[in-house]
Design goal:
By secondary structure, this protein is α+β, with helices and mostly antiparallel strands. The chain contains five helices and 17 strands. Strands 2, 3, 5, 6, 7, 8, 11, 12, 14, 15, 16 and 17 form a twelve-stranded mixed sheet that branches.
Length: about 250
């Protein structure tokens, strides 16, 4: 029970505020990914866990999987943050309100979304230009992550809207008056997916996260990629071993 509460707290927290990480970490150097578990006992799973993310998706097994759908809606851009590792939009909606991922009869509430460059996930040995991770939590504490792969192409209006209001300083949530964002603008029309059991991709790397990696990438303009790269040119965790896990693919 403690583990479930910890994972859901991480997904629901102002995830990305300085307070979330009492022990600093980075993607490279002496506080980089290979050293995360040495930095803090709470980060032990980062290097000792057996179901870690991200992974290279190869040889997925086609399976009869439930369709997934997104009950997302436009709302004020109230909790935008540069957390020192990425640009993130947080949601602090009360349970039962807000935006939802629905898988079969299971409902998960959107808690935050953030970006990585390039994609943390690989498909058949190759990354995409970027990825957006949309994190969700269910009322029973289960956590689900949705990865939408981003490739250079036409501009994305939702991402451009966020980029135009990137915080000037790190570590503080900002409310952007008069601006509404609809996370549905981050979704491709085709929601076919790969799924596997994994973890958070940043400390404390808690496991028990169900990942849904959408197969259809979404366009983002080269200019939008460059704008993010000026802040975070390479905010990705290295690929993690599969350790016998099965990746399933919707039909």
């Amino acid at each position: 029970m403690t583990f479930v509460l910890l994972v859901v707290a991480e997904a629901l927290a102002p995830a990305g505020s300085r307070a979330q990480w009492k022990t600093p970490w980075s993607y490279e150097g002496v506080t980089g990914a290979e050293h995360w578990s040495d930095l803090d006992p709470e980060y032990a799973a980062c290097n000792a866990g057996k179901e870690q993310s991200p992974i290279d998706i190869r040889n997925a097994e086609k399976a009869e999987l439930p369709a997934i759908r997104f009950e997302y809606k436009s709302g004020p851009l109230k909790y935008l943050i540069d957390n020192g590792h990425t640009i993130r939009v947080n949601y602090h909606d009360a349970p039962g309100s807000g935006n939802f991922l629905i898988v079969g009869d299971k409902r998960y509430q959107l808690t935050q979304f953030h970006f990585h460059r390039p994609s943390e996930e690989y498909i058949q040995g190759k990354p995409y230009d970027m990825v957006v991770h949309l994190m969700h939590a269910a009322s029973d504490g289960k956590v689900a992550g949705v990865a939408v792969l981003l490739k250079a192409g036409s501009a994305n209006a939702t991402i451009q809207q966020i980029w135009e209001h990137m915080p000037k300083t790190q570590g503080k949530e900002e409310e952007i008056a008069g601006v509404e964002v609809d996370p549905a603008g981050l979704m491709p029309r085709d929601t076919a997916y790969y799924t596997y059991m994994g973890s958070l991709t940043a400390p404390p790397c808690s496991e028990g996260v169900t990942w849904y990696v959408l197969k259809t990438p979404l366009d983002i303009s080269p200019e939008e990629i460059d704008a993010f790269a000026k802040l975070y040119p390479h905010d990705v965790r290295p690929l993690q071993p599969l350790n016998g896990r099965i990746v399933k693919e919707s039909q």
